[in-house]
Design the sequence.
């Protein structure tokens, strides 16, 4: 809102008179695990499958945590979460070292962790990636160019059916 940052990518809704928000794409959370994890052979992962697994996910004050908590229903997500982070890269790095199963948004997971196994999490939990910018600051030429590349890349991935 202050204009100190050119743009942000967020998953939370943003209501502020000093920023503009544009949806970029919608995706579903996935479970990420190491290839040798026992759940890696399942077609999809449900909360009850994770009963005895250490879960790595977004910290409790993140909107994704709230959405995930609702999907867990009567199962107490907070008792299941062993590691909280606000970074998908950190969560997947921990997964690849055998620390548990991550429930994260999938953007970039395949590219950064090509050997990680991704499985759909059911019930599906949708998240929308949004671009946020200061309303009173015109985007620089490099910011506009970056957004053009970002939007083209997202469109290309969505066309291929990938997140």
Sequence:
């Amino acid at each position: 809102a202050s204009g100190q940052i050119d743009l942000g990518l967020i998953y939370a809704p943003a209501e502020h008179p000093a920023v503009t928000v544009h949806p970029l794409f919608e995706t579903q959370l996935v479970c990420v695990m190491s290839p040798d994890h026992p759940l890696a052979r399942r077609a999809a992962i449900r909360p009850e499958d994770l009963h005895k697994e250490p879960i790595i996910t977004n910290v409790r004050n993140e909107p994704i945590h709230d959405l995930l908590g609702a999907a867990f229903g009567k199962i107490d997500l907070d008792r299941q979460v062993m590691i909280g982070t606000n970074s998908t890269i950190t969560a997947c790095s921990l997964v690849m070292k055998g620390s548990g199963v991550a429930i994260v948004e999938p953007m970039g997971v395949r590219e950064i962790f090509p050997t990680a196994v991704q499985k759909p999490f059911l019930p599906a939990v949708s998240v929308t990636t949004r671009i946020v910018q200061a309303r009173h600051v015109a985007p620089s030429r490099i910011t506009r160019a970056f957004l053009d590349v970002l939007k083209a890349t997202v469109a290309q991935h969505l066309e291929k059916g990938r997140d």
